[in-house]
């Protein structure tokens, strides 16, 4: 039975696609917004190819969804741009924050009225365990930390509308993006992999399972929370 629509930003690859496929399996009609077409064939029919770093394009894309019964918004899209503080380019600030944070605000402003109209909904932010600190992640960790702070604020503001707002914060997840930003041959990467307490890297499906929990109708008493999906890294 279709539960309504779920919108997943950056759902064409990696964690975003795993989230989209899991929500599809959960009974949602899933709409992916990404700069590329989804790899998974089942997601292509409702996919919208859009550059969400372009404010006008993002606003138009989300406005076009306002007539649909959107029950879930997963703010997943993001870029990293790793650099130690001495090497951080201030010019990258807008690039990172516009995609990672501004997109989430644009999406919520367009879709929260839809959720209110239909009696409630779910917003899930894909943040990161780097909000607790990691070298060479000044801009990324700051943008994801801002998302976590926004989630707590929105949780308070939207509770009366039966809209919950939560975060899933992945730890080391084996995706193309992880390996691009953490070269497998580097000693730092080896320490990350060997340091996961449960003894393995995470998978996109591990993150998708957590998102699915927050989106379940039975999770309506959980809001304003951040769930670290990290194999124990954040407590080790």
From TrEMBL:
Transmembrane segments: none
Domain of life, source organism: Bacteria
GO biological process: fatty acid elongation
Entries under Pfam families matching the protein: adh_short_C2 (PF13561)
CDD domains linked to this entry: SDR_c
Molecular function in Gene Ontology: oxidoreductase activity, acting on the CH-OH group of donors, NAD or NADP as acceptor
Alphabetized SUPFAM superfamilies for the sequence: NAD(P)-binding Rossmann-fold domains
Family: Belongs to the short-chain dehydrogenases/reductases (SDR) family.
Protein name: SDR family oxidoreductase
């Amino acid at each position: 039975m279709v539960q309504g629509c779920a919108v997943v930003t950056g759902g064409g690859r990696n964690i975003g696609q795993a989230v989209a496929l899991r929500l599809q399996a959960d009974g949602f009609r899933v709409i992916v917004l990404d700069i590329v077409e989804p790899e998974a064939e089942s997601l292509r029919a409702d996919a919208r190819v859009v550059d969400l770093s372009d404010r006008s394009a993002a606003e138009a894309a989300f406005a076009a969804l306002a007539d649909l019964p959107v029950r879930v918004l997963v703010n997943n899209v993001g870029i990293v741009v790793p650099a130690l503080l001495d090497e951080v380019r201030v010019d990258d600030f807008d690039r990172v924050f516009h995609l990672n944070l501004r997109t989430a605000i644009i999406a919520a402003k367009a879709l929260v009225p839809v959720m209110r109209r239909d009696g409630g909904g779910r917003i899930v932010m894909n943040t990161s365990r780097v909000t607790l600190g990691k070298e060479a992640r000044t801009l990324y960790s700051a943008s994801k930390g801002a998302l976590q702070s926004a989630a707590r604020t929105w949780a308070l503001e939207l509770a009366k509308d039966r809209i919950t707002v939560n975060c899933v914060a992945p730890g080391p997840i084996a995706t193309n993006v992880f390996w691009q930003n953490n070269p497998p041959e580097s000693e730092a990467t080896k320490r990350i992999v060997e340091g996961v307490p449960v003894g393995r890297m995470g998978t996109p499906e591990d993150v998708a399972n957590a998102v699915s929990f927050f989106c379940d109708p039975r999770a309506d008493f959980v809001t304003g929370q951040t769930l670290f999906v990290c194999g124990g890294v954040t407590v080790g």
